[in-house]
Write a structure and sequence with these properties.
single chain; 881 residues; alpha+beta; Calcium-transporting ATPase, cytoplasmic transduction domain A; Calcium-transporting ATPase, transmembrane domain; Rossmann fold; eight-stranded mixed β-sheet; 49% helix
Amino acid sequence: MEGPCLDWYNYSSEKLETHLKTNVSNGLSQKEAKSRLKRLGPNQLKAEKKVSNLQLFIRQFKDFIVALLIVVTCIAAYLGEAIDALVIVIIICLNSLLGFWQEKKAQRSLEKLKSLTQPESKVLRDGQFINVLSQELVVGDIVAIEAGMRVPCDLRLIDHHQVVIDESALTGETVSVHKSTTTLNDDHLPIHDQVNMAFMGTLVKSGRATGVVVSTGVNTEVGQIASLITTAKKEKTPLEQRLEHLGHILIVISLALTALVVFFGIIQGQAIYQMFLSGISLAVAIIPEGLPAIVTVVLSLGVQRMIKQKVIIKSIQAVETLGATTVICSDKTGTLTENKMSVSQVYLPDQLIAILGGYRLTGGISTKHSMKTKQALNQLLKKAVTCTNATIKETNQKVEMDGDASEIAILMAAVKCQLSIDACKRPDIIKEIPFDSDRKRMSVLVKSHHTYESIVKGAPEVLLNQSNRILKEGQVHPLSQQVKDKLNKRLTEMTKSGQRVMAICYKPIYKITESMEDNLIFMGYIGLNDPPRKHVKQAIRQAKKAGVKTVMITGDHTDTASAIAKQLTILPSGGQVITGQELVQMSDDELCERINSTYVFARVTPFDKLRIVKAYQQQNEVVAMTGDGVNDAPALKKSDVGISMGIAGTDISKETADIILMDDNFKTIIAAIREGRIIYQNIKKFIRYILTSNTGELLVMLFSLLIGLPLPLVPVQILWVNLITDGLPALALGLDKGHANIMDEPPRKKKESLFSQGVGTMILLRGLMMGLMTFLMFILAYQFLGGSLAYARTMTFMTLILSQLVHAFDCRNHQMSVKQLLFGNGYLLISVLLSIVQMIVIVYYPPLQAIFHTVGLNRFDWIFIIMFSLFPTFFFHFTKK
């Protein structure tokens, strides 16, 4: 039934219907579509081979240090230390299981994220267009495509309106192809000459079209070209790169210090294999081999939390950058406002008519008007409805509309003004020139009595320049400059009230080849109201408090944009507004000079956004940019954080962006920034925790050997400390909710070191204090409390573990109260309590005493342990005061 080998461009619509057993008017039935999907498989290219659970587990043992430890452990077993060797192997396996769990958790998170970002397509099923996942498309489906979409499969076009497709990804040709529906009779046409075809993965640059699915998945043209199907290598984020670099440094330092420990131990007469085993164990403990896995888990769990807040993070790098964002460049419509547009006023020449009802179908015109006025109003609304792509239908006495928000508003106004549902349905269109953000207008050509008629809607200042006549009281008159001035004055009044205004014009066409958009007859204005979203004003204030500047970028009239910006507190007193026309006349240097005092960019094109992003970045700002259209892609890609709209966004904007807002709401951006700050702070917390703990472990061993004392910890104890303290407590720190005042702090610098703000100094000082107190406990227990070496090691073992667990709470936030520190993170509290239970079991359970070389302790011993463990916390707390 399918395959790229067939010359689908030779098939007429009728032949397609017969061959593919479909219907271009009604599409497939849902039952038939499910049957074909089961038989033919999903519309997707071959998926990347997944790593099995066994492979993932084995991968945990590939670390050089771990492999070396296993070898040394085997040697120890051969020399008769079988129990120690077995316990160490078990600990290694437990560590590997923890690493496996962390990686598996991250893998599942990323798979869930991938499923959320799957594109959808509009497909005709059972006579109605519905949205389905693109991977569920089947041969014979009737699919609608429009500007900004990636073509979801190979289509034979059967209807189109000025559609242009960029096929460079498939053919390498940089010139976009203007498509048609004409049946081609040539044989063996190359792809770029198949103008009635649309191929999977290509980009619709403009216009819209409908096509029949002829090939899906691996049977599409792109699926057959193996050279174009490559799996992109996963790039490490800047944070991962920095951590990898840190890991390399730590490996060198730890191996050097470990070698030093081994050297001193051998000089002092310690057994070579025992010292070698201790040295390798110490290296395993010092090197935070679980750090990358914990970072991945924390980032992926943060991504999941963002999903609950209606934010889809496509690039984990964006999570890092969010916390450093200093400027948000936001669209107005749908992001700052509700995108629930309603026609509030219609201006016919010399008559302003208020439309009541808001975003509801009930309502009508405000006061009684003459029959002639009502006829003129209905005539304007009828033409406006014709020049839309919105649809209207009545089912079960309920009116349903679908399309762009502004076009739905026009349909609603027409219904309110008593136009029938049939009158609001779009007639057959002979030709359409779609709306374009550069042209700022849309035009359609329709049949009108014995001739044709062009209807144009768009930006008032553009259409007024294209008009030379005006319709007034049913008569066409010349449009003088005096009348234009009057119309411009009315336009200013409407826009200053915050309305988005569009003009409606028309003209008779006597030849189809005649120009559709000049010498127009001006009919009137339609004023649309789009109320600000709830809580957006509060979110903007929160952003300002957090040191993040909000900038409005819109295609709306300057007065409309300024009115909304003032209402939302974006535009302060003395703040500047720059128009697209002014922007064109500015040099880049001039723009950079004015950019910091500018808060609104009005009447700009998507291409202007790219200049704005570059100008802010030249001022060392970290820019988050929102967008939804195909032309927004360059600015989204250039910005530090590209944010696409999940509802209004096109496929290409979603594909280019780092973040997708599922609710298109500005408030969600602020929530994402807060979450980004929390995640980055949490990463710093557990890095501080792990490195401080590892420093303490190293120093307690080094201090003992330097003054000729026995080893304060045996290898199995060192590894157990590593398992208990570097595992769950560290991960729990990564799940902190963040302190309440995190959005009162300024954004961090983009290239800020992980050890900035005194973190590096604190790691060294706290690690030194932890090692020193643990070492003093060993001396006290071994030389003054009269205990055995096993007793001293038990005291040292417990002090080291407990001091690290106490330090986990210190790493949360110094601004928190004791109650918040202890109970503000339930995961941390549970992990610490579990670790304490493990400590007690190891000390008092005889079988484990033999394994871990511990002895039972009395209550006075525990008092010493608690005092020595808490001392670093009290010392640093009071020295801060």
